[in-house]
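Give me the fold.
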Amino acid sequence: MLDADKASRALGIELTELSEGRAVMTMAVSDLMVNGHDIAHGGYVFLLADTAFACACNSHGPVTVAAGAEVSFVASARLGDVLVATAEERTRYGRNGIYDVTVRRAGADGAVIAEFRGRSRTIEKNGEAG
């Protein structure tokens, strides 16, 4: 799945750890990701968290997609920061799952940048959730 994800590859997102129900990914904040306030645009932080979520919920095998997600931005990231997103499964029930992703700044301070909660749904072979 990740090999075919052109958006994540184009942003330099890298998978550093993958196990069942868990994924860790990194992304460096580039000059193209900084908004008018000179901080990382929230959409890029969300994209990193969403990609980690996707890898974690697809780690079980069946094709799984997002049914919904929300993010809370806690602190700002800046140009040059390396962000680390750690996605962890909280529960799976039927074809549904709940995953939490913490995005931190790499390095000594390890500041939390965002908290993300994703809800997953395993889809049928024809691509329909239901």
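The longest helix spans residues 42-57.
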